[in-house]
Amino acid sequence: MSIQKILLVILIMALCTYLPRMLPLALFRQKIKNQYISSLLCYLPYGILAAMVFPDIFSSTASIVSGITGTAAALFLAYRRRGLLTVSISACLTVFVVSVR
Amino acid sequence: MLTFRKGFKDGIPIALGYLSVSFAFGMLAVEKGLPLWSPVLLSISNFTGTGQFAGIDLISSNAGLWEVVFTILVINIRYMLMSLSLSQRLVKDMPVWQRMVIAFGNTDEIFGVSIQQKEPLTMRYMTGIILCSYTGWNAGTVLGVLASSALPVMVRTALGIALYAMFIAIIIPPARESKPIMKVIVLSVLLSCVFSYVPVLSGLGSGWTIIICGVISAGLGAYFFPLEMKDSDTPDVPDDTDEQAVIK
């Protein structure tokens, strides 16, 4: 790919990333009064984040065993209300220990 | 108070997670034969994970421009839902230009962390969390490009789980407090597994899958456990122990 075309692709990508992020924020400036819609928007983050994590997290490491062990560690610590960094680092360490063995 | 300082501090875990992911991104881009400046420019201008990884595939396979548009839009359409959700959490009188600045930084992780805040989100807070995360994202990319020899594979694969684990830390504690949230999460996970493992459905791109699972699970949650509306205020996340969601 020529330099010009790479630059064009990067520009197109930037627009296709920014516009979906920008339009709803710029257009929906009122609080939504509809009970169903605002309930939906309240639950939406959990639905989206859950679908992003599972089942991809199982295959996010070298082996399915380390993936599942790391997931279990993260679930356990998150359930014990540990912070983001603690949960994240502990999951990485668990995966590391399992893969070394 | 949601100050710049608080935002920056909340951004540190995100930045650390980003370091490892964008490091891998930078290395992969170089491995695929892209010019060294291109992954850096991608990270500066796009500030997104999945889209950029898809982008280096598109560039290295010399994809057509419409293919680029379609692929990246499908991957990113979930941001419309996140931005819509985020728009309901911002302070009331925030001017449009500030909303447009925040929009650039509405990544999955920044969205996930900022919506945990109980108070309406201020420009200062959002600037702090975005600047901190953005720095980590770009620093990681540059380091990945510069890294002549790869990290030991074991370390790299261990880091692969970092951001997923962070999402778990975001969604599990609220699910402990609220049965409706727990049900939305469980339903979404089940749907998502169906979409990955059932042969015909697994052909659908992950961008679509996330939207379908998110909308169905949150839609059913909103139907069966509607929030009670308070006047002129954002509805709180239900934290009851009964079936029926009641807002304090």
Write structural notes for this entry.
Chain A is mainly α and 101 residues long. In chain A, 76% of the residues lie in helices and 0% in strands. Chain A has four helices and no strands. In chain A, helix 3 runs antiparallel to helix 4 (84-100). Chain B is an all-alpha fold and 248 residues long. Chain B folds into two domains: 4-171, no CATH class; 178-248, no CATH class. Helix content of chain B is 69%, strand content 0%. Chain B is built from twelve helices and no strands. The radius of gyration of chain B is 19 Å and the shape is globular. Mean pLDDT of chain B is 85; it is low at 239-248. The chains are: A mainly alpha (101), B mainly alpha (248). At the A-B interface, helix 1, helix 2, helix 3 and helix 4 of A face helix 1, helix 2, helix 3, helix 4 and helix 5 of B.
